[in-house]
Amino acid sequence: MERMADLIARQAQDGRLDWIGLRPARLAVPVAVEAVEVTAAGLSGDHARPGPRAVTLLQAEHLVVIGAFLGRGPVAPGVLRRNLVVAGLNLSALRGRRLAVGSAVLRVTGPCAPCSRMEAALGPGGYSALRGHGGWCAEVLLPGRIARGDAVRPLSEEGGDVVAQDDFQRVEAEDHDQRRQVEPPHRR
Length: 188
Hints:
Elements (H helix, E strand, L loop, with lengths): L3 H6 L5 E8 L8 E3 L1 E5 L2 E2 L11 E5 L1 H9 L14 E4 L10 E4 L2 E8 L5 H6 L3 H5 L5 E7 L1 E4 L3 E4 L10 H18 L6
Parallel strand pairs: 5-6
Antiparallel strand pairs: 1-2, 1-6, 1-11, 3-4, 3-10, 5-9, 7-8, 7-11, 8-9
Organism: Roseicyclus persicicus
Pfam families: MOSC
Protein name: MOSC domain-containing protein
């Protein structure tokens, strides 16, 4: 019988980078680009800061799911304000793992919870539609260049792929604080 860690680590295929979006300022509309340099601080031209949330990722397959929850077709990636849309990989299974994207290497650090702006961006029920489908945060381990169509490959566990537990706890605490700001007091 195989160990659970081995089963979780195995992916059926590499993924593909379908969309790249830069947010030039905090509330600015994301701009789609074909390619970008990844620096230690995140994507060049994006307003993000270095650390465990430098780059945000969303699973392409979830665009259809979110749209279905809203009673319409797939949602446009820019509306959700994530940096990268990846197809063909279950990002949920990659928490704590390193990903090679183009010549860059990222580490998936934790979930990227939806913010209250999603209700305005998507309409009534937008925030709820994104719960559990808000994407993932990542830190930059190796700067490089990425482009639409690049393979997204999970790297082996060798070399310390797993993020330290205190990093997970810090990201989860930030997500919890963010949710508390949005949820009504009676739901807390």
